[in-house]
Specification:
With 170 residues, the protein is mainly alpha-helical. It has one domain. Helices cover 64% and strands 0% of the residues. α2 packs parallel to α6 and α5 packs across α6.
Length: 170
């Protein structure tokens, strides 16, 4: 970036790596990536660390929208579509997942009511048996479900942080 375009970052900013290029784009400047650039992150995050990192970065997206509201305006933000799909829509996923689960549960109840009572019981017993007999599968299923739940919970916590204006999430 040209030295003349730099301005100090606001105190308490969470996503400086998004704020700076978005400010430039909103100012009419082009932002590009160098194919020669390399980044390495050798750290491995434990699940608790990953959850806190997700809460922080997602809170940062909401902070960016609050502190740089022009990113939300299609006419002002030339990369609005990318911003919408890459940053904003992920904030809706827990609410969409909940709607899908509620709708799916309603359909499942309806479908199961049409079957004789023994069929749903047999299906449930078969599922339990498979998970008991195959502990590796059970561990993978539990791990995947807990990771998915953790991500959705991080989005909800970030939303609450944003509504409260709680930006100190380090």
């Amino acid at each position: 970036m040209r030295r003349a375009l730099w301005s100090p970052l606001p105190a308490g900013l969470i996503l400086d790596d998004v704020y700076v290029p978005m400010r430039l784009v909103l100012g009419g400047y082009r932002v590009a990536f160098s194919t020669a650039a390399r980044a390495r992150d050798t750290r491995r995050f434990a699940s608790g660390q990953e959850y806190r990192r997700k809460v922080r970065t997602l809170t940062g997206v909401i902070q960016l929208c609050a502190w740089l509201p022009a990113v939300l305006v299609p006419g002002r933000n030339p990369i609005w579509i990318q911003f919408l799909f890459h940053k904003l829509l992920r904030l809706l996923t827990p609410y969409l997942v909940l709607a899908i689960l509620v709708g799916g549960a309603g359909l499942a109840v309806r479908a199961l009511r049409a079957l004789p009572v023994a069929v749903p019981l047999a299906l449930a017993a078969a599922l339990v048996l498979v998970l008991v007999v195959l502990p590796g599968l059970r561990r993978r299923v539990v791990h995947q479900l807990s990771a998915a739940f953790s991500l959705q919970a991080a989005i909800v916590v970030a939303t609450v942080n944003g509504i409260r204006g709680r930006w100190n999430v380090w």
